[in-house]
């Protein structure tokens, strides 16, 4: 399959070439080696270092696993046919041609197709922490604080070496040279970087306070910037760790996050009070150019001068008008005018009082006449009404008495009909015991009991029960003699 006569084979297989190679020859030979040896390959990995399509529509990114990474390029002509989402943290399977780019002597894979296989480990960790901190409210706009209009003392948490801090200081001092900058050195990549960044945030919060120790004599910071330059997701990962997010959330001083490039987003960006797309942009967000403040001061000064000049001119015109008034040139003119007004008011008051008294007298006289007329006609009318009422009352009393008499007579007749005396008048009598109890049953008497029989004419008949036993208590006896019956 492979020709052993080619220069690329000599490069790969010979230990000591016969002549020196140029750089371009080496680069071409390496490319030919890769393309001939591997050709079309399939690679699975996680997308990283993706910055978006360039101006021509090409996609440049890297594929990585836990130990290595390989550069990849997806040209615009193939990009429209790729349905997988190209973004950092996505796990994909790509099919393409393995080659080397001569300009940088870097091997890469030219992607022809791509399939999405899920989310990478770092992306999953990022989403899980983002979801948890968002649920706690650390990303809420309500807790975001505005930046001071003109901060005089700025704190920065970043690496003290490199171009990032120099660019930031240059931009900031160029916009406002008088700003005081204090840097809290911290690693911004690798193991332990997150702890140093969080410690730097806490340290700058202590500056100017008793807790700051030697730094307590320095002015307190007005704003803090956490920043670093661009990089891959792995390189920026320390800004995605919970320790940094908690330190930013606990800061008593507003914090600006300026991490990476425009397309980079970290957890620190969501927690900070303001996100800047780059460190240089963070410097521009912190303070406006000094010339803007000077122009505003000049404008305010001009407005104040115009306002004061207008007020002074208005006061002068009022003073001139007052001076020309006759009140000051002829003081007696004003007093005479008011004296005339007082006289006129006094006359008006006197006339009003006189008219009021006259009207009151007329109303009183009219009322007296009306009362006399009403009294002359009212008394006879009332007498007539009283006489009529007396007559009607007499008729009513007599009628009521007649009704009561008739009712009393009816009741008397009913009482007579129900009276025991009335019963006696019809031929009946009443026999009572000595106790006064009316006798109703022969069993109620004993031999020797005294009985009293009452008649209608008021007379009484006394009798004594003989010794014969009662029929209900003694055996039946022969009929009594006639004289015995009379004793009963």
Key phrases:
single chain; 488 residues; alpha/beta; OB fold (Dihydrolipoamide Acetyltransferase, E2P); Rossmann fold; 4 domains; five-stranded mixed barrel; five-stranded parallel β-sheet; 14 helices; 13 strands; disordered N terminus; disordered C terminus
Provide the fold topology.
Blueprint: H1 7-13, H2 23-38, E1 40-48, E2 59-64, E3 69-74, H3 76-79, E4 90-101, E5 106-119, H4 121-135, E6 153-158, H5 163-175, E7 180-185, H6 193-206, E8 223-228, H7 242-250, E9 255-259, H8 267-271, E10 274-275, H9 279-286, H10 290-324, H11 326-329, H12 331-418, H13 420-425, E11 430-433, E12 450-454, E13 460-464, H14 482-487
Parallel strand pairs: 3-5, 6-7, 6-8, 8-9, 9-10
Antiparallel strand pairs: 1-2, 1-4, 2-3, 4-5, 11-12, 12-13
Mean pLDDT: 82
CATH superfamily of the largest domain: Succinyl-CoA synthetase domains
Q: Count up the helices.
A: 14
| Outline type | elongated
- Cα gyration radius (Å): 65 Å
Low-pLDDT ranges:
1-9, 472-488
Q: Biggest sheet, strands in spatial order?
A: 1-2-3-5-4
The CATH architecture of the largest domain can be given as 3-Layer(aba) Sandwich
- What is the level 1 CATH name of the largest domain? Alpha Beta
* Number of strand elements: 13
**What is the CATH T-level topology of the largest domain?**
Rossmann fold
Mind describing the biggest β-sheet? Answer: 5 strands, mixed, barrel
Roughly what percent helix? 40-55%
Give the class from helix and strand content and strand pairing. alpha/beta
């Amino acid at each position: 399959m492979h020709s052993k006569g080619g220069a690329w084979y000599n490069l790969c297989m010979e230990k000591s070439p016969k002549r020196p190679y140029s750089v371009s020859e080496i680069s071409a030979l390496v490319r030919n080696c890769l393309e001939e040896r591997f050709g079309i390959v399939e690679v699975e990995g996680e997308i990283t270092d993706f910055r978006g399509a360039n101006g021509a529509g090409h996609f440049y990114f890297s594929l990585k696993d836990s130990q290595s990474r390989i550069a990849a390029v997806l040209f615009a002509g193939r990009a429209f046919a790729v349905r997988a989402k190209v973004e950092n943290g996505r796990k994909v399977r790509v099919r393409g041609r393995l080659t080397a780019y001569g300009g940088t002597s870097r091997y890469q894979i030219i992607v022809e197709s791509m399939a999405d296989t899920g989310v990478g480990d770092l992306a999953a960790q990022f989403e899980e922490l983002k979801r948890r901190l968002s649920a706690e409210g650390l990303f809420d706009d309500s807790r975001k604080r505005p930046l001071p209009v003109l901060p005089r003392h700025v704190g920065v948490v970043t690496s003290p070496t490199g171009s990032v801090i120099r660019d930031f200081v240059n931009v900031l001092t160029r916009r406002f040279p008088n700003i005081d900058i204090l840097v809290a050195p911290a690693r911004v990549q690798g193991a332990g970087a997150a702890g140093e960044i969080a410690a730097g945030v806490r340290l700058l919060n202590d500056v100017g306070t008793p807790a700051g120790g030697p730094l307590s004599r320095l002015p307190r910071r007005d704003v803090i910037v956490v920043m670093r330059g661009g990089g891959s997701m792995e390189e920026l990962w320390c800004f995605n760790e919970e320790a940094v997010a908690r330190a930013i959330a606990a800061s008593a001083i507003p914090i600006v996050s300026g991490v990476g490039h425009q397309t980079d987003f970290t957890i620190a960006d969501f927690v900070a009070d303001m996100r800047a797309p780059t460190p240089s942009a963070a410097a521009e967000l912190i303070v406006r150019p000094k010339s803007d403040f000077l122009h505003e001061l000049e404008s305010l000064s001009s407005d104040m001068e115009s306002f004061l000049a207008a007020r002074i001119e208005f006061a002068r015109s009022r003073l001139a008008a007052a001076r020309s008034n006759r009140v000051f040139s002829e003081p007696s003119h004003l007093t005479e005018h008011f004296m005339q007004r007082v006289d006129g008011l006094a006359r008006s008051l006197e006339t009003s009082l006189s008219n009021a008294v006259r009207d009151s007298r007329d109303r009183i006289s009219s009322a007296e006449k009306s009362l006399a007329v009403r009294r002359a006609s009212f008394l006879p009318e009332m007498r007539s009404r009283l006489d009529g009422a007396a007559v009607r009352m007499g008729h009513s009393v007599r009628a009521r008495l007649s009704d009561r008499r008739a009712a009393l007579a009816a009741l008397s007749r009913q009482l007579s009909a129900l009276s025991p005396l009335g019963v006696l008048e019809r031929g009946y009598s009443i026999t009572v015991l000595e106790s006064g109890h009316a006798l109703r049953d022969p069993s109620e008497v004993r031999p020797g009991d005294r009985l009293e029989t009452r008649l209608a004419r008021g007379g009484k008949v006394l009798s004594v029960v003989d010794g014969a036993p009662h029929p209900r208590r003694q055996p039946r006896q022969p009929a009594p003699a006639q004289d015995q019956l009379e004793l009963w």
